[in-house]
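We store amino acids, tokens; thus:
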Amino acid sequence: YTSGTTGRPKGVVRDNGGHAVALAWSMANIYDIGPGDVWWAASDVGWVVGHSYIVYAPLLTGATSVLYEGKPVGTPDAGAFWRVVAEHRVKALLTAPTAMRAIKKLDPAAELMARYDMTPFRCLFLAGERLDPDTYDWARTTLGVPVIDNWWQTETGWPIAANPRGLEPMEVKPGSPSVPMPGYDLRILDFEGHDRPAGEEGAIALRLPLPPGTLTTLWGDDDRYVDSYLSRFPGFYLTGDGGYRDEDGYVFVMGRMDDVINIAGHRLSTGAMEEVVAAHPDVAECAVIAVYDALKGQVPRAFVVLKATSVRDAGEVEAEIIREVRDRIGPIAALRDVTVVAALPKTRSGKILRASMRSLANGDDAPAPATIDDPAVLESLRLALRKEN
């Protein structure tokens, strides 16, 4: 089932044979994992990463799979991941950028990592949400190994775009999961379904047919499958994400199409703004969402969580972020509201519940989704917004 960040979760149906072929190929060619290697996908067995890369893929490959029940911090501290890597001699780890941001927030100098022998560790793979360049730089500098972004969805079951470490490692471009993998005919389309030129943002779509391992329908609801994914652009699967490709063919995923803000007729991606906000030295993680505005239609609003080591006044940080977004993106970005919060509401898989945040910020009711990790975080955000209003 999809994580439920975009509404009612959808049951994804796959054919076992195609799934097995895709997973066996990707373990060897994307993740560079073979028989006897120790592999750790730090996720929940119930999510797509769990199905694909905790259970099936390592077994198909003949690799050892680490199963971990816990979080990157608080079980017992921000060195938990490094302890597991050292004790089990993990070659490669696949997790979400959120995990790295949580560790960075509590242990920015990686002092806890120094306790452990990280010699066997060769590569960190990050997926599940957009990898901002600041988190990429911190992880690469801290770990001293390649940090590889890869982009895929519950529906696809394995990476759409990646850097094939076991086939032919490519240059890493921060902010990009690299290039489409075999079988994915990825296109950037405008609203009429025409291809966008390099460097220009549009809807990311996949030309049919889809490769092995991807969804064949939704459980018990063929009509919803067609309506959700195949109707907007006939002959294409709509990913729901927006982005662009550069002159070298690298894909840059800027966020969900729902998160593109229409400000007085100008379309801006929240991903670009989040990149600026996340780069602030006091920010551990952030989310930028679109809220209703009677004059401009929509305006952006940023919510930020400060690093545990930050001693700055929240008001100063908020003002600096507003200035930085104006300087780097331009006055049209119109970011006026920045709010420091204790935590962002997320699913158990680490995805930020942007739809719920948008509802709250717009004054609508936002019941906690069944997939939420900590309902108290959503309630505290509701109370904070109520005080402001």
